[in-house]
């Protein structure tokens, strides 16, 4: 399914990536010693303070920790109240039967056209699994979309990380067919960036001139380069992305100045 946010060309666009909100069924509930609802709202408030003009928000998965219709409906209501176009793709904690997809087929990529850019959202979530995989049909559809949009700048979004984070415990849960994804995008020189969530931390990798960017969670953070599961003391945040008319990308991570205290990691289910 394709959406058009803006037809304007020769204009820079501001995109905000949020990820891994891990929202619970009711806003007062705690998760790993935090209130994900409060943290999520605080990140959204910071985003709006820092950037008065935002063209679009992209959520790269694990929207819910309790993936019920109650959780998703509350998320949608809050996002709609902001008045900024927003799009989301699922993570491993989401439930595809309840998730607010943008089309009838959960495996069909969502395409958002904004100026001379096309943003393609891929579903990398697998039922009952933590690791990720983009279905063969999804990769075939991606190929056709890249051919169709060959004259536009491209940014791709999915939940799972294609490149290793040098953390043994999280890398076993990465995108398992990342090599297939790389082979799919290799022939196309107009792909500028791939953004993901899942790892709850900021990272940048570059391959064939493409930036691969992971982004902090609006909730808890994972300690970088840790062999075993460990939480980090970094604060929740989001990624600012400026899509320039000439095809270049400007990006920066913003974090809350304070956050709630964290404790046990067992709730996540990664151990």
UniProtKB/TrEMBL annotation:
Tagged with keyword Transferase: no
Which stretches are transmembrane?
none
Q: Which Pfam families match?
A: Metallophos
Q: Does the keyword Iron apply?
A: yes
Give the record's keywords alphabetically. Hydrolase, Iron, Metal-binding
Q: Where is the signal peptide?
A: none
In what residue span(s) does the Calcineurin-like phosphoesterase domain sit? 14-201
Family annotation (CDD domains): MPP_GpdQ (cd07402)
Family under the similarity heading: Belongs to the cyclic nucleotide phosphodiesterase class-III family.
UniProt name for this protein: Calcineurin-like phosphoesterase domain-containing protein
